[in-house]
Structure formats: structure tokens, C-alpha cells
């Protein structure tokens, strides 16, 4: 997979993409991530990338020209399966969307900032608009990092134990069951006996029942 990220703040991605599973996925060639600074495509002598809204009001709007130049340059180099725009008024990301996007070849993610982009960018270039929840972030960069992370970890080869991603919360519509590791007893706090029984069938049944109970308690909406 290849992900191209279009942003005014490419350095915001240094941290999230240089650790853990996402770093390893890139090292293994499972994914290539390319961050592009929209400012580099400004034709303005002051490298301006935003302007006042025609409708007035506070806040700046990201101009269409540099974004258009960059998107068209990238589209001339390869076909994109989706051109995603991060915006609080987009569809809310969920595991199903992440699963679907993890099967794609080339994705582009345009990060909204300030009051967002000129609507004509959305009308003419964007195929999908995503939010990561009902709260407001300073910009779409953190959302783009979250979306990328959720997608990349699902690509075969990104996680060394392939079955691990399949047992995540949400992957089967349920929250994940509690987990324990050694020691079996700490300060008198014991691991449930069944997990030490060595009876794989009973352990599997316990995990399923715990996942169901946890979901019923915490997220009954998921059971509907
Ligand atoms: Cl995609 N962008 C911004 N600015 N805020 C958000 C968001 C996106 N998703 C949730 N909050």
C-alpha cells in the first residue's frame, strides 16, 4: 500500500509514523507513507496557502490552487483508490471502514486545517470525507495519523502474529476480553483459575463469554 498525505504541517507525522508497528510496516515494505507540504505548491511569492472566506466570518480557508496542483501531480503519477479529506463533518471512522481501506493499493489523505478547504476541492477531487469522532481538533493531521494507523496495522505482514489484529476489540463486533500475564498472583490478586487450567476449549468459551459481558456492560449499542 502507498499513502500520500497532503498537509500544511508534515512534521506532525514524524512521531506517529516512526514508532512501533507503523515503523516496522514501513521497514518491511508493507506500506510507503509520503508526506507532502501543501505550502511547497503555493505559486504566491509569500507562499500563502489560505485566504479569507467570501462569506466573511472568523478563520481562514485553505485555497484551492496549491492543493489542486499537488493532487493533479500525484494523480498523474498513479491511480488512487480513494482521495480522503479529514473533516469533523465527515463520516465517522469505524473498524469496518478501516478494514475496507486496508485492502486498497493507493490512498491520498488531504488534511483540513483552519476553517477547512475551499468547497470546490471537496466537490471535484475528494472521494471520501472522514472524521474520527464528535469533537474538534486543531487540524486534520492527528485525524489522518489515526486513520493511517487503523488501516496500516490491518495490512497482512504489518503485525507479526497475523491473528492478533483479528482478535482486537470491534473486529468481531465485540469488545476484547480481559487479558492477564505472569505472575499468576501479585499482592494476592489472582488470575482467574480457568486461564491456568490448560483446558483450551474452556479458555476459549470463557473469553467469548467475557467479551460478550464486557460489551453488554460498556457498549450495549454494539450488540444491537
Ligand atoms: Cl478529521 N478534523 C478536525 N479538525 N477535527 C476532528 C476531526 C477531523 N475528527 C474529529 N475531530
Please, could you describe this protein's structure?
About 30% of the residues lie in helices and about 20% in strands. The protein is α/β, with parallel strands linked by helices and about 220 residues long. It has two domains: about 1-150, SPOUT methyltransferase, trefoil knot domain (Alpha/beta knot); about 165-224, tRNA(m1g37)methyltransferase, domain 2 (Trp Operon Repressor, Chain A). 6-chloroguanine (6GU) binds near residues 87 and 140.
- Written as H for each helix and E for each strand, in order along the chain, the element string is EHEEEHEHEHEHHEEH
- Categorize the overall geometry: elongated
Please name the CATH architecture of the largest domain. 3-Layer(aba) Sandwich
CATH topology of the largest domain: Alpha/beta knot
Q: What is the class of the largest domain in the CATH system? A: Alpha Beta
- Biggest sheet layout: 5 strands, parallel
Task: Chart the SSEs and their pairings.
Blueprint: E1 2-7, H1 20-27, E2 32-37, E3 50-52, E4 60-62, H2 64-77, E5 82-92, H3 95-101, E6 106-111, H4 119-124, E7 128-131, H5 141-152, H6 162-166, E8 185-186, E9 189-190, H7 200-218
Parallel strand pairs: 1-2, 1-6, 5-6, 5-7
Antiparallel strand pairs: 3-4, 8-9
The structure holds 6-chloroguanine.
Amino acid at each position: 500500500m502507498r499513502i500520500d498525505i497532503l498537509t500544511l504541517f508534515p512534521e506532525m507525522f514524524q512521531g506517529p509514523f516512526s514508532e512501533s508497528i507503523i515503523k516496522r510496516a514501513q521497514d518491511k515494505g508493507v506500506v510507503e507513507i509520503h508526506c507532502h507540504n501543501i505550502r511547497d505548491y503555493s505559486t504566491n511569492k509569500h507562499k500563502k496557502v489560505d485566504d479569507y472566506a467570501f462569506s466573511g466570518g472568523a478563520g481562514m480557508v485553505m485555497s484551492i490552487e496549491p492543493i489542486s496542483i499537488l493532487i493533479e501531480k500525484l494523480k498523474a503519477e498513479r491511480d488512487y483508490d480513494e482521495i480522503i479529506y479529514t473533516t469533523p463533518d465527515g463520516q465517522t471512522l469505524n473498524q469496518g471502514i478501516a478494514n475496507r481501506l486496508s485492502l486498497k493499493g493507493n490512498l491520498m489523505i488531504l488534511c483540513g486545517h483552519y476553517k477547512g478547504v475551499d468547497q470546490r476541492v471537496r466537490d471535484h477531487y475528494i472521494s471520501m470525507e472522514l472524521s474520527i469522532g464528535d469533537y474538534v481538533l486543531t487540524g486534520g493531521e492527528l485525524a489522518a495519523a489515526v486513520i493511517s494507523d487503523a488501516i496500516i496495522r490491518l495490512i497482512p505482514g504489518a503485525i507479526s502474529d497475523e491473528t492478533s489484529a483479528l482478535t482486537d476489540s470491534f473486529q468481531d463486533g465485540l469488545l476484547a476480553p480481559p487479558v492477564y500475564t505472569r505472575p499468576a498472583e501479585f499482592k494476592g490478586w489472582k488470575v482467574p483459575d480457568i486461564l491456568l487450567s490448560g483446558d483450551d476449549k474452556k479458555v476459549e468459551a470463557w473469553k467469548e463469554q467475557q467479551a460478550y459481558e464486557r460489551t453488554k456492560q460498556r457498549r450495549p449499542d454494539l450488540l444491537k
